[in-house]
Amino acid sequence: MSDVTATRHPGLNLNHTDRETHDRAESVMFGFWVFMMSDLVLFAVLFATYAAQSVHGIAGGPAPAEIFELKSTLWQTLVLLTSSFTMGLAALALKYRDDRRRLVLWLLVTAALGGTFLYLEGADWLRMARDHGAVPQVSGFLSIFYALTGTHFLHVSAAMVWIGVMLVQIGRFGLKPEVKLRVMRLAILWHLLDVVWIGIFTFVFLFGVVQ
Amino acid sequence: MTKGIPVSEDEGLRAELRSYAIGGILSLALTGAAFWLVASRALSLRTTLLVLGGLAIVQIAAQLRFFLHIDLRKSHRDDLQLILFTALIIGLMIGGTIWILFNQHARM
């Protein structure tokens, strides 16, 4: 019953335009989900350490409420959320239209938004370091703050490199099955990075400002 | 045909576009509510923290549902179980860490 197995894996599937690749997708997609979940556990450890250090690890240095700026965090959040949405549009272009130009266009928009996010976050760090002397070695709170947001920053940077590699592969090889499956996994990573950011803007920035 | 498993889960481009749009608008609204709550200081500290946590969990669920297509369909159950188990592990680690470290701090 290929009809039954063909629909097993969730989400960004290719059933509509490419049944054969869709059949092959299930195990690699599920495997990638398992990998991503272990990555979330890494973030969980950083969040747990942050929760303790942001209260007890100030060590005479600046407190969260003194260095965070809501406006900057809001812009970062809006840009990353929009990029998650445009990555969804890229996935839909792949799934329903098999449309290379549209896919490339939405990937480029997503990469531009991702770059904007990285720029905004980098500028926010520089502002904290310049105006408040808030560098990682000042206190336990600042060490884990930069470790947590920095890990997320590195993830987004790596995903940006992945987008670049995909653009090259789409250009060179066209929409081959392997390339499609890579784009689908890229989309999962990108969406999950926005999910992690929900945790960061809520439990780091908003919690920090309100206290 | 095996019972209970749909032949095809193709909702069609329009339906899926709508799903992404709903997810996007919902996320925007929840984000807006969270930032407004902090900027306006409308509630007491304790209530604010609780509501913020709730808004974050709802937004995470919304993005899993509308962007990552995780729902209650039988065919998605493996992934849902994987995610729920991971959520359990994350809850244990974060909850346990906070519990132990705050307890230690109180004793020092």
UniProtKB/TrEMBL annotation, chain A:
PROSITE patterns: COX3 (PS50253). It holds the Pfam family COX3. The keyword Membrane applies. It is a multi-pass membrane protein. Residues 1-209 form the Heme-copper oxidase subunit III family profile domain. One of its GO terms (molecular function) is cytochrome-c oxidase activity. Keywords: Cell membrane, Membrane, Transmembrane, Transmembrane helix. The chain crosses the membrane at residues 28-53, 73-94, 103-120, 140-168, 188-210. It is found in: Cell membrane. Signal peptide: none annotated. Its main location: membrane. GO terms for cellular component: plasma membrane. GO terms for biological process: aerobic electron transport chain. Coiled coil: none annotated. InterPro entries: Cyt_c/ubiquinol_Oxase_su3, Cyt_c_oxidase-like_su3, Cyt_c_oxidase_su3-like_sf, Cyt_c_oxidase_su3_a-hlx. Heterooctamer of two A chains, two B chains, two C chains and two D chains. Cytochrome bo(3) ubiquinol terminal oxidase is the component of the aerobic respiratory chain of E.coli that predominates when cells are grown at high aeration. Has proton pump activity across the membrane in addition to electron transfer, pumping 2 protons/electron. Belongs to the cytochrome c oxidase subunit 3 family. This is Cytochrome bo(3) ubiquinol oxidase subunit 3. It comes from Wenxinia saemankumensis. The lineage of its organism: Bacteria, Pseudomonadati, Pseudomonadota, Alphaproteobacteria, Rhodobacterales.
Automatic annotation (TrEMBL), chain B:
The chain crosses the membrane at residues 20-38, 50-68, 80-102. GO terms for cellular component: cytochrome o ubiquinol oxidase complex; plasma membrane. InterPro entries: Cyt_c_oxidase_su4_prok (IPR005171), Cyt_o_ubiqinol_oxidase_su4 (IPR014210), Cytochrome_c_oxidase_bac_sub4 (IPR050968). It is found in: Cell membrane. It is a multi-pass membrane protein. One of its GO terms (biological process) is aerobic electron transport chain. It comes from the Bacteria. Keywords: Cell membrane, Electron transport, Membrane, Oxidoreductase, Transmembrane, Transmembrane helix, Transport. It holds the Pfam family COX4_pro. GO terms for molecular function: cytochrome bo3 ubiquinol oxidase activity; proton transmembrane transporter activity. Belongs to the cytochrome c oxidase bacterial subunit 4 family. Heterooctamer of two A chains, two B chains, two C chains and two D chains. Cytochrome bo(3) ubiquinol terminal oxidase is the component of the aerobic respiratory chain of E.coli that predominates when cells are grown at high aeration. Has proton pump activity across the membrane in addition to electron transfer, pumping 2 protons/electron. This is Cytochrome bo(3) ubiquinol oxidase subunit 4. It comes from Wenxinia saemankumensis.
